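Input.
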Amino acid sequence: MTDQHFALFETRIGLCGIEWGPRGINGVQLPMGGEAQIRTRIRQRYGDASEQEPTAEVKEAIERIVHLLAGEPDDLADIALDLDGVPEFSRGVYAIARTIPPGQTLTYGDIAKRLGGVELSREVGQALGRNPCPIVVPCHRVLAAGNKPGGFSANGGVATKLKMLEIEGAIVNHTPSLFD
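Output.
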């Protein structure tokens, strides 16, 4: 019997998942092709996690995520996360990202400067690429230099990132390339 649980829920951008344990939410899964793929991805990360009815706190988080992805501003900053096992540097990156309001953005360099120097920009990007709680930790609100989209490790890549930013009303300097 495990104390790690998950639930799937529908949003404007597709089917998502949320994972939680005894100390709170520790994962959010963005859409990735369907129920089977999401369940497989969650079990890859959390082993024997059981699919269950969410707790009251998790239900509230789901509702707020759904509303945010429907265009209702909510920074989700007060949703409690369990980031045990996440490196300290990454937790610092996530803490700064959680201060970015919907519709606003920072760059990797902006966050790096707050953590000690612009030379940490690559590490900031790597930490965001490993973000276990996208949306709640709004890595989609962090852009590359020149307010260009940069990368996005979720399914759909930059197109998903741009869709989320568009829903929030953020302005991004994006010229489609052969790789989009």
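The chain has a mean pLDDT of 89.
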